[in-house]
């Protein structure tokens, strides 16, 4: 389960930034350097942003507003 959770973005909220600040990152036996951890965070931010934009545009296509 821990290896599956490694690929979900929840660890990037508090755990990963704290571990990067300390200078040591390891999760589920996977150890990353500082540059790899920051790169992984950047990829997570970009992917989350893309998913958000896709959902936003899909929601706008379905939106119907009625009023004055």
Give a description of the structure.
- It is a single chain.
- With 68 residues, the protein is mainly alpha-helical.
- 60% of the residues lie in helices and 9% in strands.
- The protein has helices at residues 2-5, 15-22, 34-62; strands at residues 25-27, 30-32.
- A two-stranded antiparallel sheet has the order 1-2.
- Strand 1 and strand 2 (30-32) form a beta hairpin.
- The longest helix is centred in the C-terminal third of the chain and has 29 residues, at 34-62.
- The N and C termini lie far apart (52 Å).
List the helices and strands and how they pair.
Layout: H1 2-5, H2 15-22, E1 25-27, E2 30-32, H3 34-62
Antiparallel strand pairs: 1-2
Q: Which structural class fits the helix and strand makeup?
A: mainly alpha
Instruction: Provide the spatial order of strands within the biggest beta sheet.
Output: 1-2
Number of strands: 2
Integer average pLDDT: 80
CA-to-CA gap between the ends?
A: 52 Å
Shape: elongated
**Biggest sheet overview:** 2 strands, antiparallel
What percent of residues adopt helix (DSSP H or I)?
55-70%
Give Rg in angstroms.
17 Å
Compressed to H and E, one letter per element, the order equals HHEEH
């Amino acid at each position: 389960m821990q290896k599956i959770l490694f690929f979900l973005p929840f660890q990037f909220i508090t755990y990963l930034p704290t571990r990067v600040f300390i200078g040591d990152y390891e999760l589920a036996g996977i150890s990353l350097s500082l540059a790899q951890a920051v790169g992984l965070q950047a990829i997570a931010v970009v992917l989350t942003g893309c998913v958000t934009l896709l959902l936003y545009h899909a929601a706008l296509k379905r939106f119907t507003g009625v009023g004055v």
